[in-house]
Amino acid sequence: MKTTPEHNERIAKMKFASVYPHYITKIEKKGRTKEELYQVIEWLTGFDDKKIQELIDEEVTFETFFNKAKLNPNAHLIKGVICGYRIEEIENQLTKQTRYLDKLIDELARGKKMEKILRTE
Fold this sequence. Notes:
It is a single chain. This protein is mostly helical. It has one domain: Helicase, Ruva Protein, domain 3, CATH 1.10.8. It is built from seven helices and two strands; from the N terminus they run αααααββαα. The longest helix has 17 residues.
């Protein structure tokens, strides 16, 4: 499935703070911890838990969130389908980065081992 300009715009304008509680609910429901969620977000973006909380408090959009991030050099190893989109085929960088985060959180919730989630090669 190909993303549309409207879809990409909607993601760019969405506030990270509005989605973050859903991430917590999703992973905790499956027995994972907030610390593991922080570890996954930090691996992808370089943000520690203090910085994540700052960005939530500032109510930044996903566009600002990823503009401030220092994306992990191995992020391109995140592949597969999330929300009906094949990550490797997403052309819009911001949408791709957001789907990277969605995919990592999905893997965490599904009980995948942390070593596999935090791709090294």
